């Protein structure tokens, strides 16, 4: 029987506004953080090189988001298997790509470079949302509810781990656990799984010498200030230099070849230096409001599939933001997790904004239209 056409309501405008604010902050800060190095780099000789590319990604991401807002999120169920096969194929193809800094994370398409792990994060969310919805009350069973879903997350995380990308693989597994918890998994199952994940994380850290060096430098970065502790020390200098009000937009000193590629994973350090504590609080507040609205969308979704899908999408952004800010502030070992919507990067921004379109579409189909 043909599914009746769904009557759409209004999107969550607060959520939409927060996303666009974060993207706008990203465009401004990518330009500020990259202008010096781009101007003096003989390959670019253009202070606006990264700004132009980020503006292009922003335009494409906005178009993707608008399209996703208009597509009923239930339609993704029908094409989940096809999208899963495509994503898995990309994760295999990237393993044969040219390594960059010892890792194989990007597929060079000449015009653009594609990072399959950015797609894989959301693919796992789509698969798990459908699986959890289909299982219903079986989610309370460890053997029939938890293990099959953990296996799904583990397969994709394992493929990402082969790229030498433990950070994104960890994000995938944490999001998997968050979705299972939100679906009603028992506390003892969640805690047991969390302990297993922690043990696996320790194991994968121990078997790779460079990860062990990062862990040791986190404990005392000044023990090796010119190698493993260099990035964190320069980041802490940036945070400390900013003070309350910052040194002023565009006036960062740490972006001048002190912090490597400051427009990427360590862009929050430049925000702290140029905009100070006030700027940091502003950005963190935007993420907090985003998480709040994402949870509201999940709570008000009209079905389990939409609710779990919303919590998964929200969790990806929340977990990455927490990890990134913790890394640049020296609260956890250095790892390569970009700051959502703000760090430079095409694949990350486009897939994040497309996912926001899905989240906003869920917000158009709610049980309760009253504001909470």
From TrEMBL:
- Localisation: Cell membrane
* GO BP of this protein: cell division; cell wall organization; peptidoglycan biosynthetic process; regulation of cell shape
E.C. number, please?
2.4.99.28
- Membrane spanning stretches: 12-34, 54-73, 80-100, 145-162, 167-184, 190-207, 228-247, 267-292, 304-329, 341-362
Keywords per UniProt: Cell cycle, Cell division, Cell membrane, Cell shape, Cell wall biogenesis/degradation, Glycosyltransferase, Membrane, Peptidoglycan synthesis, Transferase, Transmembrane, Transmembrane helix
The pathway noted for it is:
Cell wall biogenesis; peptidoglycan biosynthesis
Recorded superkingdom: Bacteria
The record's top EC class is transferase
Protein name according to UniProt = Probable peptidoglycan glycosyltransferase FtsW
Q: Which organism is it from?
A: Clostridium tepidiprofundi DSM 19306
Q: What is the lineage of its organism?
A: Bacteria, Bacillati, Bacillota, Clostridia, Eubacteriales
């Amino acid at each position: 029987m043909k599914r009746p056409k769904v009557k759409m309501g209004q999107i969550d405008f607060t959520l939409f506004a927060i996303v666009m604010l974060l993207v706008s902050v990203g465009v401004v800060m990518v330009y500020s953080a990259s202008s010096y190095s781009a101007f003096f780099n003989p390959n670019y000789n253009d202070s606006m090189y990264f700004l132009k590319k980020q503006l292009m990604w922003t335009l494409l991401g906005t178009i993707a988001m608008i399209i996703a807002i208009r597509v009923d999120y239930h339609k993704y169920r029908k094409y989940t298997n096809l999208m899963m096969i495509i994503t898995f194929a990309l994760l295999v193809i990237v393993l044969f790509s040219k390594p960059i800094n010892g890792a194989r994370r990007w597929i060079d398409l000449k015009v653009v470079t594609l990072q399959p792990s950015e797609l894989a994060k959301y693919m796992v969310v789509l698969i798990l949302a459908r699986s959890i919805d289909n299982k219903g009350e079986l989610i309370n069973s460890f053997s029939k509810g938890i293990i099959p879903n953990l296996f799904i997350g583990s397969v994709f995380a394992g493929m990402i781990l082969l790229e030498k990308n433990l950070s994104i693989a960890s994000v995938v597994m944490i999001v998997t656990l968050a979705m299972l918890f939100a679906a009603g998994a028992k506390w003892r199952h969640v805690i047991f799984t969390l302990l297993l994940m922690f043990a696996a994380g320790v194991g994968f850290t121990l078997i790779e010498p460079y990860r062990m060096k990062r862990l040791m430098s986190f404990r005392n970065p000044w023990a090796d200030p010119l190698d493993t502790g260099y990035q964190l020390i320069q980041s802490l200098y940036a945070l400390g230099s900013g003070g309350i009000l910052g040194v002023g937009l565009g006036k960062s000193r740490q972006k001048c070849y002190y912090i490597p590629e400051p427009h990427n994973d360590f862009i929050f350090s430049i925000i702290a230096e140029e905009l100070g504590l006030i700027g940091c609080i502003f950005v963190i507040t935007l993420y907090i409001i985003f998480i709040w609205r994402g949870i509201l969308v999940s709570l008000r979704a009209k079905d389990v599939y939409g609710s779990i899908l919303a919590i998964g999408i929200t969790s990806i952004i929340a977990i990455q933001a927490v990890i990134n800010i913790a890394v640049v502030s020296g609260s956890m070992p250095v790892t390569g997790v970009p700051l959502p919507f703000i760090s430079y990067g095409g694949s990350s921004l486009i897939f994040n904004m497309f996912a926001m379109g899905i989240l906003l579409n869920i917000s158009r189909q709610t049980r309760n239209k009253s504001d909470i």
